[in-house]
Design brief:
By secondary structure, this protein is of the alpha+beta class. It folds into 2 domains: 125 residues, 50s Ribosomal Protein L17, Chain: A (Alpha-Beta Complex), CATH 3.90.1030.10; 42 residues, no CATH class. Helix content is 36%, strand content 31%. The chain has 4 helices and 9 strands; from the N terminus they run H-E-H-E-E-E-E-H-E-E-H-E-E. The strands form 4 sheets. It has a 3-stranded antiparallel β-sheet with strand order 1-9-8. The protein has a two-stranded antiparallel ribbon with strand order 2-5. The longest helix is centred in the N-terminal third of the chain and has 21 residues. The two termini are 29 Å apart. The mean pLDDT is 93.
């Protein structure tokens, strides 16, 4: 028995297809695709979520002091004159950061190997570069998705059959995160 479905594609095409659809599933929570593709996507998605559940609490909180430019009411940097030159005024601020432990960092890099970067474009700014944000899907997996599945041993996805596609009669399914 084969370990995976070839999906009538070359290795690079198949890998790109599965990466893009897995990324879409994690980003949106559900996608519609063919049954064979959904079964392959399920394998990757389940592995990613299992990795996220295992490593979700594996960090330490560190307090860091940082210099930040002082700003006025309009949001512009405050400058003062020193020796005839305008110099920006800085103030020291304490920040709390999450520092990944080595195993969580490795898990994050394993997830980044599979997931593409996603750019979120607001509906009112479609076609423009302004106000677009890059969504960190590894962060979403570790902070939002993993806590939902904490007490669950596998079975993070559900495949629901929709019906046959009109063009080629391929079985279409909805794959979603439970």
């Amino acid at each position: 028995m084969a370990k995976y479905r070839k999906l009538s594609k070359t290795a690079s095409q198949r890998k790109a297809l599965l990466r893009s659809q897995t990324t879409a599933l994690i980003a949106n929570g559900k996608i519609i695709t063919t049954e064979a593709r959904a079964k392959e996507i399920r394998k990757q998605a389940e592995k990613l979520i299992t990795l996220a559940v295992r490593e979700k609490d594996n960090f330490e909180t560190v307090t860091v002091q940082a210099k930040v430019a002082k700003k006025d009411a309009n949001g512009k940097r405050v400058k003062e004159v020193v020796d005839g030159k305008k110099v920006t005024v800085y103030e020291t601020v304490e920040k709390e950061l999450k520092k990944d432990l080595p195993s969580r960092l490795h898990a994050r890099r394993q997830m980044d190997k599979i997931l593409y970067t996603v750019t979120d474009v607001p509906a009112d700014n479609s076609g423009r570069k302004r106000n677009t944000k890059k969504i960190d899907l590894t962060d979403k997996l570790l902070n939002e998705i993993a806590p939902k599945y904490e007490g669950r041993n596998g079975g993070y996805t559900r495949i629901v059959k929709i019906g046959c596609r009109k063009g080629d009669a391929a079985m279409e399914v909805l794959i979603e995160l439970v």
